[in-house]
From TrEMBL:
The lineage of its organism: Bacteria, Pseudomonadati, Campylobacterota, Epsilonproteobacteria, Campylobacterales. Gene3D superfamilies: N-terminal domain of ligase-like. It comes from Sulfurospirillum cavolei. InterPro entries: ANL_N_sf, CapK_Type1_Caps_Biosynth. This is AMP-binding protein. SUPFAM superfamilies: Acetyl-CoA synthetase-like. It comes from the Bacteria.
């Protein structure tokens, strides 16, 4: 079907063809599930999320209390067909070691870290003739899992990526990651998408896209309270709410997500 531009057309395609499994970009699949809940009640039983990082809150929401199996596929354009995928045990990626050699390194020194230690994922292509890559830095934070997977495979296993290293922001000496915010925001079923920007030393600007049937004022108050408890009121949040107009500009904004540091002198 391709990138989600038209929710109604995608839903019609699923209904007409009796589709029970879908592959897609995490936020777009989440958007489809929140706009068309009946799809996941009657049709969709398995989902493969293909990206570099997926929030646990999003997986939990899509799994619908265990009625839908949600698999994570780890990859990026530079990997070709991707780097790894979860098995039915849903406990980490099994890596595509016949084509890619993975290492976890210290992001500062570049030295390989011990198995079980977090670091930056780098990979080397083994069979590529056009544009081979050697120890390509992905910017992703993860670790190898030392325990054998319950499925019994001999393939090396990597824990789910915890996000991009660069998607970290320091505000008033407090580090915030996209993962931190995802686990809070994406737990709300009425939230369709969000964007975080930082213009001031002690304030984050959050733009929320909410379902049109949401009580925006009540939602904002509840979210502000949760954010201040989570971050111990060390800085302020300015929240701007936009109603979901179901246009392609909303769904296309979900493809590439990051924290936007717009402060003077910040690395862009």
């Amino acid at each position: 079907h391709g990138v989600l531009d038209d929710v109604e057309a995608a839903a019609a395609c699923i209904f007409q063809n009796g589709i029970t499994a879908i592959v897609g970009i995490p936020m777009q699949v989440s958007y489809l599930a929140r706009m068309k809940k009946e799809l996941f009640d009657t049709h969709i039983k398995k989902v493969l999320l293909s990206t570099d990082y997926v929030a646990d809150a999003l997986v939990k929401s899509l799994s619908r209390n265990g009625t839908c199996q949600v698999f994570n596929h780890y990859g990026m354009t530079e990997m070709g067909y991707g780097g790894g995928v979860e098995c039915a045990c849903l406990s980490g990626y099994h890596l595509r070691e016949n084509d890619l050699y993975f290492e976890i390194v210290d992001p500062i020194t570049g030295k390989v870290v011990e198995d079980g230690t977090y670091g930056e994922v780098v990979f080397t292509t083994l069979n590529r003739q056009a544009m081979p890559l050697i120890r390509y830095k992905t910017g992703d934070r993860a670790r190898f899992l030392v325990e054998t997977c319950a499925c019994g495979t001999f393939l090396r296993r990597m824990e789910k990526v915890r996000g991009r290293i660069e998607n970290t922001l320091s505000v008033e000496g407090h580090e915030i990651t996209l993962r931190d915010l995802d686990e809070i925001f994406l737990a709300y079923e009425s939230l369709m998408d969000y964007r975080v920007e930082c213009y001031d030393p002690n304030r984050l600007h959050v733009r929320l896209v909410l379902d049109k049937n949401t009580d925006a004022k009540a939602f904002q108050n509840a979210l502000k309270q949760e954010l201040h408890v989570r971050f111990q009121s060390k800085f302020d949040f300015e929240i701007e709410i936009e109603e979901d107009d179901r246009s392609s500009k909303i769904t296309r904004s979900m493809i590439k997500r990051k924290i936007h540091d717009c402060r003077q002198g910040a690395k862009r």
